[in-house]
Amino acid sequence: MTQDQIEIVVDRLKAALQEESASARLQTVMATGLRPHPRYIDVLVERFTVEPEFHVRDMLTWALIHHDHTLVLERVLPELDSPLPQARSQALHTLSKLKDQRAWPSITTEHLTDPEDQVALTAWRAAAALVPEDEASALAEVLSTQFGRGDRAMQRGLSRALAALGDAATPAIERAKKHQSSTVRAHALATEKMVKDPDVGFDVALAAARRTVAILGAPLVDHLES
């Protein structure tokens, strides 16, 4: 295509991504992933900062990872500093799917402790996917400060991120088991169970941990009930 033709296509893409129908937007995004072009990247990233439908946002990330990874990284990384929580969250989600460790230094403690739950949750997932082996213990220390945060989905997400770090998470979990908060202790115990047994479900692990904390009533617990 000539440059003029490309600009016409890009303008049409921008218009199509503003269609009222979420299904139509979804189909448009899918087409960009099937036929990637460098000029689409900026349009797709701009859209994921404002797209209201989750399944369309997820498709936007799918389309982006089918483009050149270096170009996508260059465009997505600045969104980590966006004042818009959705932009930060979607950028982190995209990085977790790219699985390109060049993005690791850009995931900061501020992202991992972001006051917006969805941003923090996505940061945990991205960090666990991208962390170099020699930095996993340090990541676990930061993640452990978030024990007890949020609802079930948040706590499950944190446990899964720590479980993905394996043995590197053990020292941080051990310290959290001694925390004065029973909520934190239970969450740490549930996470410990998930590290030791990757097949255990979060709800089962957390229920057992809460029983242990309630029965023993002490910060230091060495095991979960069966």
Give a topology summary.
Elements: H1 3-16, H2 22-34, H3 38-48, H4 54-64, H5 69-76, H6 85-98, H7 109-112, H8 117-130, H9 136-144, H10 152-165, H11 170-176, H12 182-196, H13 202-216
Helix pairs in contact: 1-3, 2-4, 3-4, 3-5, 4-6, 6-8, 8-10, 9-10, 9-11, 10-12, 11-12, 12-13
Describe this structure in words.
- The protein has 226 residues and is mostly helical.
- The model is unreliable at 219-226 (pLDDT under 50).
- It starts with a helix and ends in a 10-residue tail after the last helix.
- The protein has 13 helices and no strands.
- It has two domains: 1-130, Leucine-rich Repeat Variant (Alpha Horseshoe); 135-226, no CATH class.
What series of H and E elements makes up the topology? HHHHHHHHHHHHH
Distance between the termini: 64 Å
Helix content: 55-70%
The proportion of strand residues reads under 5%
Question: What is the mean pLDDT?
Answer: 93
**Count of helix runs:** 13
**Strand segment tally:** 0
What attributes does this structure have?
single chain; mainly alpha; Leucine-rich Repeat Variant; elongated; disordered C terminus
Could you provide a short overview of the structure?
This protein has 226 residues and is mostly helical. It contains 13 helices and no strands.
